[in-house]
Recover the amino acids of this structure.
């Protein structure tokens, strides 16, 4: 029979909201279901999804707080007289960040209202391919039907399964950004960008922070750049326990946490006490309570993510998925938003444009930021053969570091190009301040098929860090010193 | 340095004529000594002042009263510049380029006379010459200007804090300096003859001015000298300088004076012309236009004299930017000695004005686009944005702005890019590269943003 809605979106995050609002533009009847299952520690939040509440936004703001700590030190060199000592108060920062996030929650609700999208604060699960059963916090049930359904429930941080005490005593990024009190001396085991970024800003605001890694940092990223990032963090003050993995977490009488770990290199067992243990062992797609089996939506057996085609369609007609929940897609807000919008345009706007996932730029907001677009050096070598690629690189020093007497050892950039005549750019990697701002425009260039000669014809803006990209001329192959000198 | 790579015998003559107040500096030119470098560092000092205020909102605590020491900052900056001067001398030596700290003048075909500080003269001959003497700030030519006023040539090494300052002029130099002086806590007034940032997109220029006004910079606008009234500067008994007969209310307002100008001349060149004309040695410069005093060149940086070339700020109708000068110089040498054919591409050169709210631009301003293509043939996409980092300190919402100008008749090709916001230079650079690749609006739309940054 006739369905209540043209489109029902399950999940009010980056992808879901973008899709819903876009569909509403076409005059469609749209509804969004959003529900936040509290974390094991009891943390929950409002409309907006991971990015707004426990991802990009609070992360970047806390990263900014840490950067400002650095600015305070720099300021002295530039003539500002600040009486020592300088303190950081977690609760002032956390409250300010949380208030801003809440304003965004509110803003999203207003936007949905303005665009006449119905919002349900309910947890949805499938009854049949066109019917969702929504459950409120108090247990009240509502049935909603729709012609098209988009699953955009995203993911939640995983907890390690074989470590005693991990669940009871540890927290994740879901909790970190909502803590009212300082996390104190913190351990973050395993190493995805989230853990490095968090460890970075915790160090920057003055907390004793340790990162524990079993093997390599930033898996999937260019490994040379990943080491430079972690090297910088080490000189910045973050402690690293390499080739180690935790075995158990116990609570002490003082309420502190005792962590025991194995050092695989030395073959020893070690222990230390911390105030907080924050797990960053990856994210699991939020599909458990969706009841996907009832409708036959296929998921990847290894990752649990929903399998979609190039048009974001699942194995069931009229059911789609966007964002972190989908298999093989980058876990990024802007791709979720773009995919959601394009999906709505294809469903209701007579468009046939598919989402292009190639050359998506990204940035890791560690104390020294790392921005990149395109292939890593390893991937380019694998794809084309290392003899067929040319890597131009340079170590540089941001002007602002000079007077501030800051160490620029890890300020580095490289461009991976095809070696043949046209020299098309395959990947660009930049470590330095404002890496995201630097890389964004170049990502556009790569979208246009930029070549090395075209970049060399571009005049630099002086004095900036980004201009050094237009001046790259030393190749790795030449073996020459790649340090930028002079003006 | 590039020519030396091709094993050419190269001589560099560099000499800094002291400012009217006696200020001078080392090897490296305007950018290093009295331009881009010290300017950006002082701008950074001002930005750090703002960062201090923001940091409190992010949980940092320190004493309420924070003062800035001009001397500490200037000393640190001058030390850094000194290291650059030294670095250049070492680089020249290593590349076997001969360097003379002497004032060069043409005295005959293929011949230059070099006079050093002590007046000792030497003659040099060369197969080819490159004039790259740049420019110096212009003085307005009123009584007291040279005795009591300073220019950007003096500001960056001023041995005392400039205090309450009047900046005369509204060029990017004037606004950048006024901006950072205000950011350091000084009382700053800018005197503007007509418009801000002549030659730049005026919509953006006005936004820059508004921002500066909101942040404490005073503007005396549309100041026009009344016919017949002479302006003069005198020193008062209290030690302050007074600008007399100003056509505004508070005529006896005591002000410190600095001097910026909206146009420049190249004084060294004019000096050389006078000498040559007097000696009547050769025809070299007779055909050159004297309107601005600059040197016109063809698209290979060659003057009307085949063996004399010129690059940099001295060129007529070319952009006064360091990277342009560097690129032009390098490519010239590669054409002369390495058989290369690439010419310097002066199209779509990006630039950034480091005012308190930074402005990055590449390509056409809105006015010039309308003029060239017609209003109906261009589409302007624009947006105000609020950098995430400014939300917590609750400041300056709706002040940042970006616009792109597209040519409808050419596939909506992006012909102008403008961004007003933090780190404008870093943001603009990549977009300039993309424009070099022929960026269209569609390609821009298809590019995914990096989140959360301003550039997205």
């Amino acid at each position: 029979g006739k369905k209540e809605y043209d489109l029902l979106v399950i999940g009010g995050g980056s992808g879901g909201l973008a899709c819903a609002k876009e569909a509403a533009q076409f005059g469609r009847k749209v509804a969004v279901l959003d529900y936040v299952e509290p974390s094991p520690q009891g943390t929950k939040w409002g409309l907006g999804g991971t990015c707004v509440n426990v991802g990009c936004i609070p992360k970047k703001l806390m990263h900014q707080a840490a950067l400002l700590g650095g600015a305070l030190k720099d300021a002295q060199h530039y003539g500002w007289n600040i009486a020592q000592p300088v303190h950081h108060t977690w609760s002032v920062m956390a409250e300010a960040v949380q208030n801003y996030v809440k304003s965004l929650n509110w803003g999203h609700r207003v936007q949905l209202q303005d665009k006449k999208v119905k919002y349900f604060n309910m947890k949805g699960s499938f009854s049949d391919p066109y019917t969702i059963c929504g459950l409120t916090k108090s247990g009240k049930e509502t049935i909603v039907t729709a012609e098209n359904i988009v699953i955009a429930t995203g993911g939640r941080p995983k907890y390690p399964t074989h470590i005693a005490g991990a669940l009871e005593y540890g927290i994740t990024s879901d909790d970190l950004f909502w803590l009212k009190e300082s996390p104190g001396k913190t351990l973050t085991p395993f190493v995805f960008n989230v853990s490095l970024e968090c460890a970075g800003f915790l160090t920057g605001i003055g907390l004793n922070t340790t990162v524990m890694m079993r093997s390599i940092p930033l898996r999937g990223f260019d490994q040379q750049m990943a080491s430079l990032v972690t090297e910088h963090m080490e000189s910045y003050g973050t402690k690293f326990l390499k080739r180690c993995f935790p075995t158990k977490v116990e609570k002490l009488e003082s309420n502190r946490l005792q962590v025991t770990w194995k050092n695989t290199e030395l073959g020893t067992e070690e222990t230390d006490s911390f105030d907080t243990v924050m797990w960053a062992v990856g994210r699991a797609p939020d599909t458990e309570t969706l009841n996907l089996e009832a409708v036959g939506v296929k998921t990847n057996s290894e990752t649990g993510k929903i399998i979609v085609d190039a048009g974001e369609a699942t194995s069931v007609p009229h059911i789609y998925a966007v964002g972190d929940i989908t298999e093989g897609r980058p876990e990024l807000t802007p791709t979720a938003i773009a995919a959601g919008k394009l999906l709505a345009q294809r469903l209701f706007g007579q468009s046939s444009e598919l989402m292009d996932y190639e050359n998506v730029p990204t940035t890791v907001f560690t104390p020294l930021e790392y921005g990149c677009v395109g292939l890593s050096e390893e991937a380019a070598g694998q794809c084309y053969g290392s003899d067929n690629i040319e890597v131009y690189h340079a170590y540089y020093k941001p002007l602002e570091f000079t007077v501030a007497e800051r160490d620029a050892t890890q300020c580095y950039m490289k461009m991976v190009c095809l070696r043949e005549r046209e020299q098309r750019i395959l990947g660009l990697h930049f470590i330095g301040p404002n890496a995201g701002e630097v890389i964004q425009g170049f990502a556009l260039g790569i979208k246009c098929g930029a070549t090395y000669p075209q970049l060399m014809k571009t005049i630099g803006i002086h004095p900036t860090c980004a201009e050094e990209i237009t001046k790259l001329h030393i190749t790795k192959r030449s073996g020459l010193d790649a340090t930028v000198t002079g003006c | 340095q590039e020519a030396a790579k091709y094993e050419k015998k190269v001589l560099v003559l560099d000499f800094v004529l002291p400012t009217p107040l006696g200020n001078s500096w080392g090897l490296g030119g305007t950018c290093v000594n009295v331009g881009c470098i010290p300017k950006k560092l002082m701008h950074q000092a001002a930005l750090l002042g703002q960062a201090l205020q923001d940091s409190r909102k992010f949980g940092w605590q320190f004493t309420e009263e924070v003062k800035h020491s001009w001397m500490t900052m200037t000393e640190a900056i001058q030390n850094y510049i000194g290291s650059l001067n030294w670095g250049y001398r070492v680089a020249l030596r290593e590349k076997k380029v001969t360097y003379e700290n002497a004032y060069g003048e043409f005295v005959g075909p293929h011949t230059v006379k070099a006079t050093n500080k002590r007046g000792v003269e030497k003659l040099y001959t060369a197969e080819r010459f490159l004039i790259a003497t740049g420019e110096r700030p212009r003085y307005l030519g009123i009584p007291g200007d040279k005795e009591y006023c300073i220019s950007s040539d003096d500001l960056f090494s001023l041995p005392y804090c400039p205090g309450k300052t009047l900046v005369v002029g509204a060029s990017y130099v004037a606004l950048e300096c006024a901006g950072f002086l205000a950011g350091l806590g000084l009382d700053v007034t800018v005197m503007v003859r007509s418009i801000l940032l002549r030659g730049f997109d005026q919509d953006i220029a006005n936004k820059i001015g508004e921002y500066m006004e909101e942040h404490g910079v005073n503007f005396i606008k549309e100041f026009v000298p009344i016919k017949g009234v002479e302006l003069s500067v005198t020193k008062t008994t209290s030690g302050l300088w007074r600008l007399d007969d100003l056509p505004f209310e508070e005529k006896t307002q005591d002000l410190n004076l600095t001097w910026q100008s909206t146009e420049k001349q190249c004084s060294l060149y004019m000096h050389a012309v006078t000498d040559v004309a007097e000696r009547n040695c050769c025809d070299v410069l007779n055909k050159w236009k004297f309107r601005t005093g600059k040197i016109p060149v063809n698209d290979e940086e060659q003057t009307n004299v085949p063996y004399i070339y010129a690059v940099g700020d001295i060129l007529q109708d070319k952009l006064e930017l360091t990277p342009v000068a560097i690129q032009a110089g390098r490519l010239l040498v590669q054409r002369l000695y390495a058989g290369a054919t690439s010419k310097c591409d002066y199209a779509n050169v990006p630039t950034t004005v480091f005012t308190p709210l930074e402005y990055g631009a590449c390509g056409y301003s809105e006015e010039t686009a309308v003029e060239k293509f017609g209003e109906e043939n261009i589409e302007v996409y624009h947006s105000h944005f609020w950098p995430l980092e400014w939300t917590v300190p609750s400041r300056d919402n709706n002040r940042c702005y970006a616009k792109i100008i597209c040519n409808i008749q050419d596939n909506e090709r992006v012909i102008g890019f403008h961004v007003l916001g933090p780190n404008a230079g870093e943001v603009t650079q990549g977009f300039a590269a993309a424009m070099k690749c022929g960026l269209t609006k569609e390609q821009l739309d298809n590019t995914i943003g990096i989140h959360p940054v301003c550039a997205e």
Remarks:
- Residues 5-154+286-349 of chain A form a domain with the FAD/NAD(P)-binding domain fold (CATH 3.50.50.60).
- The longest strand of chain A covers residues 141-151.
- Chain A touches chain B through 82 residues (CB under 8 Å).
- The radius of gyration of chain A is 24 Å.
